[in-house]
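Homework help board

Subject: predicted structure for assignment chain

Our instructor gave us this sequence and asked us to write out the predicted structure in token form, then describe one feature. I got the tokens but I'm not sure how to describe them. Can anyone check?
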Amino acid sequence: MKKLVAIAVAAMFLLTAGQAFAKELYIGVLSDLTGGTAAVGTPYGAGVMAAGKYLNSQGGVAGYTLKLDQVDYAYKVQQALSAYKKFKGNGMVALQGWGTGDTEALTKTVAKDKIPTFSASYSAHLTDPTKAPYNFFIAADYSTQARGALKYIKNNWKEKRAPRLALLYPDHPYGLSPIPAIKAYAKELGFDLVGEEVVGLRAMDATTQLLSLQKKKPDFAWIGGTTSSAAVIMKDAKKLKMDTVFISNIWGADENIFKLAGDAANGNISLQTAVVWGADVPGMKVLKEFTGNEAQMTHFIRGFASMMTMAEGIKIAAAKGEVTGPSIKAALETLKDYSPMGLTPPLTYTGKDHRPNLSVNIYKLMDGKMELQETVTLDRRADWLGI
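My token output:
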């Protein structure tokens, strides 16, 4: 009898342990904390991790504790691939990724392994489920951001002549991604494209490229780099006394632009897809309480929103049954006008279209502040899917 009781107790222990294990979800987190995009990768990764801690502090997600395992891959694709293998070996159910190079390198792999992946690479082709069925993100893609800026400029253009547009971008998958879309939509809207130049992510000087463009007198110039290279461009343009207004994408001008570029940042345009710190939205109260009211960059807010959106998919999947990669994917594709605490414009995914939205916030940079001018929302054109 004692032996039977011992066996029963042991069996109950194993069952309880198994249930406890089943109530933990392992999520891999790829971050650039020390590499070429660390200036923006660090706050974004911090936002992802903060959201995980916040959710666990609220009892987890649908009874599950989230175990987020963050790896600094230093913006090196091979290191990202190695980290992915580690995550997969540890039973990863979903991935929070980062850059364009590593996200694209893993696109076929995550589809094969059926691992839902949220990244901070907003390349348009990742929104086409026929090519990237397990890829998601919570921001308007790079092409949509640029199109929104062009629409905003054209709607506010007062002169009879066509606005002149130039392009500045790094020779990198991230920088190259939206260029075809910019050129096509600029032509559609009647812009005069006057030139383009390559400026690297680590550029320390852009005088040569700007001198080439200065002769063509662009009214506006697209910057497809990050804040550090954008600051170099803005400062050099001021030295050359250029009148050009620079349009920086989501990574090209943030709260740090004023520290790096000084008053050379004034009057330029920053494109963002999340609110800035202090915005009057429900999630700001949560963020302030959770961070001790320490101001965070918009990249942090997007990282937080990315993890919250993934968690919503997990919640829906759990309500319908088993939580797996395929069930999370299917759950995410039922989201309609979901907004993570108001931190981003509403998000919608379907099985045929992973564009989260077509909305971009237009901010004017002025005197150390990012001043919201307008939120531009484009039509969900079928011919723009994945482009």
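Reply (TA_rk): Your tokens look well-formed. For the description, you could write something like this. The first strand starts at residue 24 and ends at 31. That's the kind of observation they're looking for.
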